[in-house]
Each structure stands twice: as structure tokens, then as C-alpha cells.
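User: Could you walk me through two proteins back to back? I'd like the raw sequence and the C-alpha cells for each, with a short line separating them so I can tell where one ends and the next begins.

Assistant: Of course. Protein one, sequence then structure:
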Amino acid sequence: MRVLVTGGAGLVGAPISRRFVQLGWDVRVIGIDPDYDLAGVRYAQCDIRDFAALKAQVQGCDAIVHLAAIPSTRTHPNAELFDINVAGTFNVFEAAEQAGVKRIAQASSINAIGGFWGCDDRRYETFPLDEAHPLHTTDAYSYSKQMVEEIAAYYQRRAGITSVSFRLPAVWNDATIARDKLHENAAQQRKQLNDFARLPESQQQLQLADARERADALRAKKPMELASLRAGIFEREAPKDDWLFDSMFYGRFNFWTFIHTDDSTAAFELALTADIKGAHPLFANSDRNWLGVPTETLLRLFYPEVPRRTRKIVGDESPVSIERARELLGFAPRVRALSDVGVAQD
């Protein structure tokens, strides 16, 4: 198989490119860096907004993995971010149509549903989250990922291109887990939760309400967007060493989930080889929460306004369902929880 990988040199793309080489596929990688060296890969510097150059790279390919994008609101103005992520994705699908490519797997984001980067207190309807849940985006990055899913659906209707748009959460490899001391962080947060659970119920509710009010007030100022970061809003106003605020502002919008690069690589391989038709947005993530605590405890504390369940959540099962990816692709994460990854030794 001849495959083009856009953004194939990054955290997600590099192991995918290596895997495709191992399979004996003809792998082309494009990116904006002038140089990239991976054995068995043909690399070309190419901006996905340059349609003529992109079209030349797509010619002769059987499939595309599209990963090139700006991954957050922190580094680019909103208009530029949207242009790269959305116009660039349109170019990829348009070039695919013109070249007769009928299979694309692309990186969407768990944020296509709205939440982490947004400027309001995103309200959800039910857990576990699945692909049927309504979208509600209020930031340029999340909205761009909502739009790339729409582009995929458009080209399925227009040109019969089969695609999978993976709603990836935080992507970690062994080095990330060791470097960021995630095992230690998980242990610390479990202790904080246990200590919090010993407080009287009335005190818990007061602290939760206060943390949520402060988190919502800061989120309304769009503190994680480039303009606000340059103005120092987050640095000036975010409290330091406040685990409950951090859980309200960050943790609950990550849904305590992640995907290991071994599993994102496997997911993209399945998306190119599975016998499927159509355009499919799919959650792909660990199937247990990374804290290793009962998920219903987390939802009771941080989402008390969402009592509805589409099915029972058992133990530390992830609040983001991957059942659709299991059914459609046979996706089964190898790294189901943080405990499945050993701590790297120096």
C-alpha cells in the first residue's frame, strides 16, 4: 500500500510511519520542517495549505493519514489556527478526490465535543460519552476539529471517500509518562481524593462549588488562547498548587483518559485496513481512567449535574466509550490504564 502521512514526524505520526514501514508499505511523509530522517520513509517539505504542492504528494497514493494540524489554542492566533486546521484538511480531501484516493484516516480530537479549550462551562447530557452526544464548541481549536469531521462527511457524500476521524485525547508514550511523572501525579491525586472524601459532605460541597465558580470565571476570560497568554491572564489569575481548582479547570475536561502511542498507531492501521464504508468520527482512548479510582466517584464530584447514564459504568472504566471503535474496527487498547505502563528507569 502507498500511504501519505501528513505531519508524520510528530508524537503520533512518527510511530505510525515506522509501523507502516514495518508492514512493507510505501510510506511518504510530509511536514513543514526542512529535514526529517526515518529509515524507509520518503520525506518532503510541504505545507498542506499549498494545494499544488500537496496534490503532487498525493498522486499515486492508495490512502492518507492526515495528522498535520495546530494542536491547541496556545501557539497561533485563532484565524491562523482555523486556516491551517480546516482549510488544510479541505485541501487534503480535495487532493484525495482528484487523485482517486478512497481511504483517509485523520486526527480529530476528543475536544470536538467541546470542553477543555472552551470559554464556557460545557454541560454534558450523559455518561459515558459516545459519538451520539451533541457537540458544543466555543474555541477555535475544538471548532476546527468539529469542522474536519464535517469535511470528512462532505467528501464521503461527494466522492465516496471512506474515512475515520479519531477523537484522540492526550497522547502519551512511555517517555512522556516517565518525564511528566504521571505515575506520581496519579498517586498524589488519589491521596487528595481520599483525604477530600473524609471531609463532611457539607464541607465537600462548599469547596467544590467554590472551585467550580473560580474555574468558570477564569475560563470565561479565554485564558488558554494566545492573546490571553500574551496578556498574562492565566499566569496572573490561575491559583498555584490548588488541586481542586486544577481538577475543575483541567482534569474533568480531559475525562481522566488518554491513549498510548502504541494504541493510536494500531487504531490508524485498522482505519486503513478495515472493511468499512462511510465517514466515521470515533473516540479512541484507554478504556479505564488514568487515576485508577472508581469513575462514578469522579463523576459524582465533578459532574453532579449529569446523573443520566446510557449504561452502567463499572469500576474505573473510562467515561468516554470506545465501543463504536471496537465494533467498527476491532480496536482494543493494549494500554488500558496508566498502571499498564512501567516507570522508565534512568
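----
Protein two, same layout:
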Amino acid sequence: MKKMITLVALTLLVTSLAFAGSVTGYVTDLKCAKADKAGAAHAGCAKGCIGGGEPAVVVTEDGKIYEVAEQDKVTGHAGAKVTVMGTIDGMKITKVESVKAEG
């Protein structure tokens, strides 16, 4: 019985770490994001790198990099500023509910 209660408690803890929310930033490729290259001025390069197979990420104004599990939902926004609504687990967007272009 104690094992069952412990298992349920751990499951609840882990699932509570992921939460619904939003992230606003620029869709760029992971390689350039790590080199601090993102934003409107970097749009052409982001489109080319993502089109060439680099994984897309969302980089916030303060430089935080969010990995995106559902790549197909953000790749069409390469180089653009967007707000991604979905499930966020740490620095990863695990479920994308919507992607809205900003300005």
C-alpha cells in the first residue's frame, strides 16, 4: 500500500511540473539560438537553417531558449515573432495548442 501511495504522489508531482502557458519570442534554429542569433534581422538565416533540417526553437526577448516538441507547428513561422500557447515543461514546449504571429 505504501508503494502505491508513493507512486501516486510521484506521478502527481511530475505531472504538476508541466503546465499550460505561453511563450513569446522569435522562431529560429537551435544552432543560431545558442550563438545568440535570433530576431527579425535573423529571419532569412532562420528560414534557411530550419529548412535545412536544424530544429526550430523559440527564443524570448531575454534570451531564453525553448525547445519545441511539435516542430511542424512552428517551422512555418521561422524568423517571426510569435506567441506559442501550450504545455510547457521546464524549457520545452511539449504540446503546442496554437501559434499566433506578433506584430
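The mean pLDDT is 87.

Let me know if you want the two compared in more detail.
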